[in-house]
């Protein structure tokens, strides 16, 4: 696509395109970034479904923010790559008749690149630390303690502070912090309350803990997230988040069902 | 080459005779015999003992492996040395495959070029089997409900697919190209330890039927990560798995030692470390990392073997063991291992991009620093696979930091790649186009890794299909695509033929399109909450799974087209000139096919191999593809600025 | 021309290999034979008048009497359910299931499964006596039907099966006198479920290996519809 004012000499190779590539790359970059930002804002969070806790809402926000921040960065790389195919391409299946310019690095460019990526890395790290602090601050004093026992291939839940009621459905009162004490009777499972965004492995001989505050009434699901043998795919339990009164009447109705 | 028959008296014909008759068939025969003997003894004595069936199976398989190695001739050299009758020069030449034609590929041949081709074919076989298993997985998951087979078989197929692909991606670049190309690239005649080179290849061959026999032994219920204590509960197929891993780990360690020693000690005169092609740096970094990491995997499996055959309790909490012991040992290997997979492919891409952009590598030092940073940091990030395991939650923060830090050296490598393309004369042949596909895929894979490195996000995404899509984007979209670029680049040198680019490109791009469809759909399913390694799923994931399966069929067609193009070109493609791409590295300065001794005269290097556009070089001397003249004698010639000068005297081989 | 042949050969060859592999694995997987409940008459239930379906299965101390043939198949010494482990019951029905339990047992890890859950009235009858649970120290097996990851009516049924004494003599058929357990449950709409035993009667670690991890022994499916 060299712009010459005379008819090109059919014997000579086409003159390489020496115009500054910056503007063209900028245009491609802008288009890509806009498309990716639209994707970032509308798609990932929607795919993650409903959030039944602030933890999950924060996770959805993190995924969106990471995608928003990543979009211009990946677009830089892809824009340069695309531009190279459009403008710097040698046409023809034979080898290029001339070498390119002997650029062996540009220290300011390299330093800028490494600095920017380090700053992004720092941003991600601080974001992550803040999110981790928010999660761990949730284990409040009046937390409802639920003992979760995973075994091949189902979950049972018992409420030691509520008379030892045991159930195969996880009932939780809305807006009250819950502390899960998780263990396994056999192999390693992973206790994943999908819509609340919490997960912790269930290990034999150990008790691992995770806490969350459900903030939305509804039916959700617990899945096992660590391959635990034959029926791993079927190791699913229902979660019912209900009002406090409904929770109390459920406890009362199940008082006989002890572990 | 000069006749090197020695004046020694002929070696004892019996030994020389046996050694010359050994090949893969004698290996199989000896393996079957020793395996049967081992089985008979073990069955008679141990079958009623505790853990009897596991013990019998382990002993039988060890008998097979040992027998095969004896039958293929792995012990010929050591035995002769012990007998005081070291191999003669003529026997060394025989072992190197001199004058043997095709049969040298079916023997314990020491020539690095033969071993490279053997690794190439082995990788292709492993990808074929692993790919067939992948098609079974996706077919079973096409709609909710178990279709092809029940969950037990599904779990086993997933596990076998995983370990076969892991093994294949580990060897896919350093095996074929680290062996065939690297010694030529550094101006050597062979590897530092040619017999160990053959050993590291032949250790894998008998391990493949051992692994596949797991299918008939109840399968493996654990996935390739073989978590204990589920592995303690597994049928005897688990014993087949862990023995395979032990053998494979030894092979990886041996080739790591060999490649590292070769690159450090056998470089041609003048080939200082700062002139070393980046491919060599990347391959050495990868295999050195593997040398450190794989013994952990081996240990984890040995301890598992002791749990299973001797009733020990390394991983049984009730008897004082710990599940975390297994997880730490496994992931201490598991994380460096992905860089063992990635680095050679990335290094090959960095090696070919200057050739196809006619520009020097942008920041050679930056590339080395990037690789060193990746290698160093990769040893300190393993517990990001264990964020939710409950092991040391206080360490989640520090591991999040080290994991996110890896993005900095990785980004530096991307800068080097993109900088090399900048203002280049981009020659859009298949190797270079594959590089573009790799850039696209690797960026997506890397960015999604950032999500997983964030502890709260990982709490949602760990153990879901999001992770599966992430590592397929990095390992398959990134590393495997880079390996295909490397294969397309070095194919003419290794096979003597030009790859039919029209068909290979059709296959390659078809597979790439299918790849995007399949794994973007998997990201969606993972974000929605579908666990991984699940043979059945809730209806809410039906659309994503259907789309992923359709994409998988497209991948299959594309990959098979590429395979067909590859094999047909190998058998009957255009004969290739010695330097079709105009490359400057040493492998392109020797004729095709490469003579047994590589160089008649070892080269002396005077500058690095990225001198494009420098020293007032004129047009490149890439050879046209339809050259009728016979291949030139290997006189090193200046190509675009002299990097190498011939030396008058013969340098001792 | 050569390229067409080569490429077509690779595509067809690869597809054939994958198909052969899939077919052989599929055929080798456990049998799809179903045991269907038989419907006799109508029962009055809290959910109204529903057709009444009956099914009888057994839990054995070996595999000689189930779906594995008279010589017990590959693992004759594995405990098993029989005559079949793929069970089918009608939707919107009252299902009465009888399990003849022939095996010995011991103490169950999770005492929740020594109780009866999800049946009509929350009870089962053991040898004619109605109970809401059995002693956690005397469990042989459980029959536990649980959640399937599908959008379908939730089903969770778990009945414990009391053990036969270790010293009970064998009768003419080679087994001791069984404990007969009967329970009923109401099925809702169609669905696919799985069931397995929750007592560690298998081999290896945690007693959940061997028959406990293999379909056709202590694991099966329940299809409603």
Which overall shape of chain B is indicated by the principal axes computed on the Cα atoms? globular
Q: Please write the string of helix (H) and strand (E) elements of chain A.
A: HHHEHEEEEEEEEEEH
The count of domains of chain A is 2
- Write out the strand line-up for the largest beta sheet of chain A, numbering strands in chain order: 4-3-2-6-9
CATH superfamily of the largest domain in chain A: Cupredoxins -  blue copper proteins
The main sheet of chain A comes to: 5 strands, mixed
Helix content of chain A: 25-40%
A few lines on this structure:
Chain A has 259 residues and is of the alpha+beta class. Chain A has helices spanning 22-42, 44-47, 54-87, 107-136, 244-253, and strands spanning 89-90, 144-151, 154-159, 165-167, 170-173, 178-184, 189-193, 198-202, 208-212, 218-224, 236-242. Chain A contains five helices and eleven strands.
Structural account:
The complex is a heterotrimer of chains A (259), B (653) and C (225). Chain A has helices at residues 22-42, 44-47, 54-87, 107-136, 244-253; strands at 89-90, 144-151, 154-159, 165-167, 170-173, 178-184, 189-193, 198-202, 208-212, 218-224, 236-242. Chain A is α+β, with helices and mostly antiparallel strands and 259 residues long. Chain A has a five-stranded mixed beta sheet with strand order 4-3-2-6-9, with no helix packed on it. By secondary structure, chain B is mostly helical. Chain B folds into two domains: 13-92, no CATH class; 110-572, Up-down Bundle (Cytochrome C Oxidase, Chain A). Chain B is built from 20 helices and three strands. Chain B has a two-stranded antiparallel sheet. Chain C has a single domain (35-224), classed as Cupredoxins -  blue copper proteins (Immunoglobulin-like). Chain C has one helix and 13 strands, in the order αβββββββββββββ. In chain C, strand 7 and strand 8 (129-131) form a beta hairpin. Classes of the chains: A alpha+beta (259), B mainly alpha (653), C mainly beta (225). Strand 1 (89-90) of chain A pairs parallel with strand 1 of chain B.
């Amino acid at each position: 696509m060299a712009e010459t004012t005379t008819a090109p000499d059919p014997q000579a190779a086409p003159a390489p395109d020496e115009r500054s590539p910056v503007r063209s790359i900028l245009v491609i970059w802008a288009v890509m970034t806009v498309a990716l930002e639209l994707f970032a804002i509308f798609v990932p969070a929607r795919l993650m479904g409903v959030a039944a806790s602030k933890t999950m809402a924060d996770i959805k926000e993190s995924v969106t923010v990471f995608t928003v921040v990543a979009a211009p960065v990946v677009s830089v790389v892809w824009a340069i790559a695309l531009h190279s195919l459009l403008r710097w391409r040698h046409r023809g299946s034979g080898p290029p008749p001339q070498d390119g310019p002997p650029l062996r690095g540009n220290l300011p460019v390299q330093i800028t690149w490494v600095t920017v990526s380090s700053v992004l890395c720092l941003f991600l790290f601080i974001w992550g630390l803040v999110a981790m602090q928010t999660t761990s601050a949730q284990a409040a004093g009046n937390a409802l303690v639920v003992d979760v026992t995973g075994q091949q291939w189902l979950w049972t839940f018992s409420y030691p502070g509520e008379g030892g009621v045991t159930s195969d459905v996880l009932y939780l009162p809305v807006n009250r912090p819950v502390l899960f004490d998780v263990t396994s009777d056999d192999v390693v499972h992973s206790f994943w309350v999908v819509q609340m965004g919490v997960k912790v492995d269930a290990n034999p001989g150990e008790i691992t803990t995770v806490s969350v505050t459900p903030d939305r009434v509804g039916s959700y699901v617990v899945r096992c997230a660590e391959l635990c043998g034959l029926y791993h795919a079927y190791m699913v339990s229902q979660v019912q988040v209900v009002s406090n009164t409904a929770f109390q009447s459920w406890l009362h109705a199940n008082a006989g069902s002890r572990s | 080459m000069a006749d090197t028959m020695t004046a020694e008296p002929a070696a004892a014909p019996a030994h020389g005779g046996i050694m010359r008759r050994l090949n893969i068939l004698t290996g199989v025969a000896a393996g079957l015999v020793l395996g049967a003997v081992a089985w008979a003894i073990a069955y008679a004595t141990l079958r009623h003992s505790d853990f009897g069936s596991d013990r019998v199976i382990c002993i039988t398989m060890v008998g097979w492996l040992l027998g095969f190695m004896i039958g293929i001739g792995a012990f010929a050299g050591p035995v002769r040395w012990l007998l005081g009758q070291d191999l003669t020069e003529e026997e060394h030449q025989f072992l190197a495959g001199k004058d043997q034609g095709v049969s040298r590929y079916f023997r314990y041949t020491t020539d690095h070029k033969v071993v490279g081709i053997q690794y190439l074919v082995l990788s292709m076989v492993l990808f074929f089997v692993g790919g067939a298993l992948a098609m079974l997985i996706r077919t079973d998951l096409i709609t909710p409900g178990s279709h092809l087979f029940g969950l037990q078989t599904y779990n086993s197929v997933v596990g076998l697919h995983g370990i076969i692909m892991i093994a294949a991606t580990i060897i896919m670049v350093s095996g074929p190209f680290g062996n065939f190309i690297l010694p030529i690239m550094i101006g050597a005649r062979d590897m530092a330890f040619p017999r160990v080179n053959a050993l590291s290849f032949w250790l894998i061959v008998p391990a493949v039927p051992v692994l596949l026999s797991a299918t008939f032994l109840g399968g493996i219920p654990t996935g390739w990560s073989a978590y204990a204590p589920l592995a303690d509960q597994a049928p005897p197929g688990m014993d087949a798995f862990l023995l395979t891993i032990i053998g494979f780990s030894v092979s990886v360690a041996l080739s790591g030692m060999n490649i590292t020693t070769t690159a450090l000690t056998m470089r041609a005169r003048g080939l200082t470390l700062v002139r070393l092609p980046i491919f060599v740096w990347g391959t050495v970094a990868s295999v050195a990392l593997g040398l450190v990491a794989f013994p952990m995997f081996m240990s984890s499996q040995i301890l598992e073997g002791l749990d299973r055959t001797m009733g020990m309790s390394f991983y049984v909490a009730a008897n004082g063991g710990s599940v975390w012991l297994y997880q730490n040992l496994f992931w201490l290997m598991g994380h460096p291992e992905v860089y063992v997979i990635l680095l050679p492919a990335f290094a090959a891409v960095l090696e070919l991009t200057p050739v196809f952009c006619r520009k020097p590598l942008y920041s050679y030092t930056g590339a080395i620093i990037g690789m060193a940073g990746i290698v160093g940091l990769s040893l300190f990030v393993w517990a990001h696979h264990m964020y939710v395991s409950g092991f040391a939650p206080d360490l989640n923060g520090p591991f999040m930091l080290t994991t996110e830090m890896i993005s900095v050296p990785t980004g530096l490598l991307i800068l080097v790649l993109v900088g090399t393309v900048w203002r280049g004369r981009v020659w859009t042949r298949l190797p270079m186009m594959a590089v573009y596909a790799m850039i696209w895929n690797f960026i997506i894979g890397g960015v999604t890794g950032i999500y997983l490195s964030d502890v709260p996000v990982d709490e949602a995404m760990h153990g879901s299909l999001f992770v599966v899509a992430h590592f397929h984007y990095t390992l398959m979209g990134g590393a495997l695509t880079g390996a295909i670029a490397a294969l397309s680049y070095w194919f003419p040198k290794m096979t003597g033929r030009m790859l039919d680019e029209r068909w290979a490109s059709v296959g390659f791009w078809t597979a790439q399109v299918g790849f995007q469809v399949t794994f973007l759909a998997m990201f969606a399913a993972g974000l929605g909450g579908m666990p991984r390694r699940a043979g059945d799923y809730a209806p809410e994931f039906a659309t994503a799974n259907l789309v992923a399966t359709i994409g998988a069929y497209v991948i299959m067609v594309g990959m098979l087209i590429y395979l067909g193009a590859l094999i047909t070109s190998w058998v009957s493609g255009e004969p290739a000139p010695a330097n079709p791409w105009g490359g400057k590295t040493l492998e392109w300065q020797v004729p095709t096919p490469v003579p047994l001794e590589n160089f008649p005269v070892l080269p002396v290097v005077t500058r690095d191999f990225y001198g494009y556009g420098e020293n007032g070089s004129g047009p490149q001397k890439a050879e046209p593809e339809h050259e009728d003249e016979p291949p030139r004698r290997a006189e090193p010639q200046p190509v675009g600025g002299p990097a190498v000068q011939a030396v008058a005297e013969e340098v001792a081989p | 021309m050569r390229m067409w042949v080569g490429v077509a050969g690779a595509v067809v060859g690869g597809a054939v290999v994958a198909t052969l592999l899939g077919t052989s694995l599929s055929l080798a997987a456990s049998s799809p034979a179903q045991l269907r409940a038989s419907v006799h008459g109508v029962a009055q239930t809290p959910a109204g008048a529903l057709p009444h379906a009956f099914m009888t299965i057994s839990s054995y101390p070996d595999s000689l009497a189930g779906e594995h043939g008279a010589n017990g198949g590959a693992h004759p010494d594995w405990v098993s359910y029989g005559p079949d482990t793929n069970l089918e019951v009608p939707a919107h029905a009252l299902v009465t299931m009888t399990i003849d339990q022939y095996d010995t047992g011991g103490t169950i890890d999770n005492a929740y499964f020594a109780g009866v859950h999800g049946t009509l009235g929350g009870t089962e009858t053991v040898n004619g006596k109605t109970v809401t649970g059995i002693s956690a120290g005397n469990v042989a097996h459980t029959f536990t039907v649980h959640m399937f990851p599908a959008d379908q009516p939730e089903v969770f049924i778990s009945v414990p099966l009391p053990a036969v004494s270790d010293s009970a003599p064998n009768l003419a058929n080679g087994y001791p006198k069984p404990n007969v357990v009967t329970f009923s449950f109401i099925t809702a709409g169609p669905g696919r479920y799985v069931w397995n035993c929750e007592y560690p009667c298998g081999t290896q670690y945690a007693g959940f290996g061997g028959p406990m991890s293999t379909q056709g022994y202590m694991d099966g499916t329940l299809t409603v519809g």
